[in-house]
Amino acid sequence: MSIATDTAARGAPWWLKRHETLLAIILILALIGLGAFNNRFLTVDNLLNQGRLMTEIGLIALPMTFIIITGGIDLSVGATVGLSAVMLGYSWKTFGFPMPLAIVFALFIGGLAGFVNGFVITRIKVPPLIMTIATLALYRGLAEGVSQAHSVRGYPEWFYVLGQGDIFGVPTQLLILIVLIVIAGVALDRTTFGRALYAIGSNETAARFSALNVDRTKLIIYTLSGLASGLAAVVLVSRVTTTRMDMGMGYELDVIAAVVLGGTSIFGGSGTIWGTVIGLVMIQLLKNGLALTGVKGDATIVVIGVALILSVLIASSLQRRRE
Amino acid sequence: MITKYLMTTAAAAFALSVWGAGANAASKWDGGDDLPTSPLECGTGAAAATAPVKYDGGQPTNPPNNAGKEITIVDVPKLIGIGYFNATSKGIQDAAKELGNVKAKTDGPTEAKIDEQIKFIDNYITSGVDGILFAANDPVAIAPVLKKALSKGIHVVGYDANSTPDAREWFVNQAQFNGIGKAMIDSMAKESGEDASFAIVTSTFTTPNQARWIAEMQAYAAKCHPKLQWLETVEAQEDNNLSFNQATTLINKYGDKLKGLFGMTSVATPASAEAVSKAGLCGKVAIVGLATPNAMKPYVHNDCVKSVVLWNPIDLGYAATYVLRAAVDGKLKPGDASVEGGKLGKLNVINGSEVLLGPPFIFTKDNIDKFDF
Questions:
Q1: Over the Cα atoms of chain B, what is R_g?
Q2: What b/e sequence results for A23-40 when a residue is b if at least 16 CB atoms lie within 10 Å of its CB, and e otherwise?
Q3: A288 at the B interface (CB within 8 A)?
Q4: A235 or B83: which carries more pLDDT confidence?
Q5: Which of A7-11, A318-322, B79-83, B191-195 shows the lowest per-residue confidence on average (mean pLDDT)?
Q6: Does 1.25.40.10 match the CATH number of domain B177-310?
Q7: pLDDT given at position B51
Q8: Separation in Å, CA of A65 to nearest CA in chain B
Q9: Taking CB atoms and an 8 Å cutoff, what residues of chain A touch B143?
Q10: A322 to chain B, minimum CA–CA distance in Å?
């Protein structure tokens, strides 16, 4: 890496100037600051609870990081959550599927939704932004049409373990998220699949000429995105004990915010899972910490917006110094 | 090649939606819920007295004894920044000031989203308030977080939109659903004629209050005004622009056939009135709806709208605060038949664990200027 030699020449270790490191330092400072203001913030109870609340966004943020690294985007994730949630409830209640099969079916629908995105994007060369805006409307419309806007309630008790229970004191869904973070992180960092993503994002034409199967790789990541949205839907339904067709509305923005705040370039070619995780945790804990300190909801949104802008400024100034 | 793929995708999507729509075709998509209805007597008949129901609310676990002491409460409405919840919030502040030993604040999501609302309540449980007032975006989805509050000894009282009963101690019912249904349908029949066709602009089909009212309206219309004809119910979130567009679409779609429009939310009603005004159909298309008076004053004064049905949301917030205080002080216990409601006098307990605010109120040209919210 040329960055390492550049910065070594200036006397600071390379890792200190990485976006993720800076973010992590800001995060720790913010935690200490908010913790000093409010003695209920830095408690194990609260932090674990926040982990529970951020899991749905976190699950989708992992494949979204892959997609944005390739220079793509998936705006249909929120609608896919809605569609999968409806399919979970619908297949269980109306088709009479047993609950485990209904869960598999919801995941399948999520994966299928993502596959359709990937298929049209790679085969018909529709830009991801346009394709996923279209499916955002399509999937949400299907969710409303299929459910006829009726909610589904009364799931079996054991199903709530996923969204409300805990294992050794840690929320169930947070454990799932942690496992998937590790898998996604290793896949991106240590495998040819991960390197192919960076190659596609840096220069897609070059990647094609290097005999990388660009289309197949893209198809996989969009399908993963749909699958993760399906999983998020199952977790969300379990957490709030009910299926509604408006579930997941607006998730796409929260997910993209976490990924971009984590230092992944929206133009593709760079980014890490670790950065995304820090971005995710930062947004969630900022919201929570500010709320506990007595800042009202509308003001909190402003703070998140400012944090995003600052992060982009830091990232781009770092970029300039490297060049 | 490209067209072939597009056709396949379109066909698949179409097939999927037809399959979805077909599977549910049996139930009429009118925006009402599936719960049983209890329409009131036709005409001016008084509501029949119902047998008392056993208390079915939930109780906080080992609440601290705060009787008479100062308490901090938070109000988490469906969303903030709209006239209606500004008014309930004002009522809460009025009551807090009058009581002198309540510190109240209102905070909540800027859009009526249940998962946002859950996060707000969750954060306030962690920050350690003594009481929570809420207006639920979803009656079942909000239940786990409210039960969590009860389990931490926090008093929980709902108003405006209920949760499942065992997730809160009391619910202040602004008006019984059948009362609203009757007032709406009677006003419509009076203004547009007994055999008129009408459409409804609502928030979403899953919003509990609106779904209940529509079901009750349907039941009351079938019983007392059987010739009224239901055309369509459309969703418009609680969005000003969308409501206007939906109302305009209805006007264009049904033309002369459309004789009346119901607005089911404080956003949909003025937007529908505006759509009718813009179309130059004042007097031809009657508008009856739930709305706050300030938003409706221009339309009531130019005779476009004759009746606005509502309760007083300031009183609603006020009553909710009194009920919460009474629950903290031990003055309102399971099984009680009434509670002291400050300037509102004695409020009756109905349906086990609900406190009734009173009959609905109809704003007309003669009285609307007396209200400012």
A1: 22
A2: bbebbeebbeebeeebeb
A3: yes
A4: A235
A5: A7-11
A6: no
A7: 61
A8: 24
A9: 241
A10: 40
* Residue B245, min C-alpha distance to chain A (Å): 18
A·B CB contacts under 8 A: 103
Q: How far apart are CA A116 and CA A144, in angstroms?
A: 19
Mark yes or no for CB contact A153/B140 under 8 Å: yes
Pairwise CB contact (< 8 Å): B205 & A150: yes
Q: What is the pLDDT of residues B131-155, one digit of tens each?
A: 999 999 988 899 999 999 999 999 9
Sheet of strand B131-134, all strands in order from the earlier edge strand to the far edge: B102-106, B71-76, B131-134, B155-159, B170-173, B354-356, B346-350, B338-340
Q: How far apart are CA B72 and CA B155, in angstroms?
A: 11
Chain A nearest-CA distance from B321, in A, is 20
Write down the domain spans for chain B: 71-174+313-358, 177-310
pLDDT at B16: 46
Disruptive mutation site among B2, B106, B127 for chain A (greatest number of A CBs within 10 Å): B127
Q: Which two tokens stand for residue B17?
A: 């939606």
| Of B292, B253, B268, residue with least CA distance to B85 | B292
Instruction: Determine the 3-state secondary structure of B264 from DSSP.
Output: coil
Contact flag A138-B13 (C-beta cutoff 8 Å) = yes
Q: Give the pLDDT mean for B254-269.
A: 92
- Test the B interface: residue of A240, A287, A302 with most B CBs within 10 Å: A240
**pTM higher than 0.90:** no
Distance CA A116, CA B330 (A): 59
Distance CA(B38)–CA(B211), nearest Å, equals 14
Q: What are the distances in angstroms from CA B318 to CA A261, B157, B354, B361?
A: 43, 12, 15, 17
CB B159 within 8 A of CB B174: yes
ipTM: 0.77
- Among A142, A240, A250, the residue with its CB nearest the CB of B114 is A240
Tell me whether A253 touches chain B (CB under 8 Å): no
Binned at pLDDT 50, 70 and 90, residue A9 comes out as very low
Instruction: Give the model confidence (pLDDT) of A241-272 as tens digits.
Output: 889 888 999 899 999 999 988 888 888 898 99
- Select from B342, B350, B367 the least CA-distant residue to B174: B350
Structure tokens at B227: 């010739």
Phi-psi region of B342 (alpha: psi -120 to 50; beta: other; left: phi over 0): left
**Around B111, how many Cα atoms within 13 Å sit in the side-chain half-sphere?**
10
Beta-strand (E) ranges in chain B? 71-76, 102-106, 131-134, 155-159, 170-173, 197-202, 229-235, 258-263, 286-290, 307-310, 338-340, 346-350, 354-356, 361-363
Considering only the top CATH level, what class is A16-317? mainly alpha
- Residue B59: how many other CB atoms lie within 10 Å: 15
DSSP element (H, E) containing A152: strand A152-153
Looking at domain B71-174+313-358, does it have CATH number 3.40.50.2300? yes
B177-310: same fold as B71-174+313-358? yes
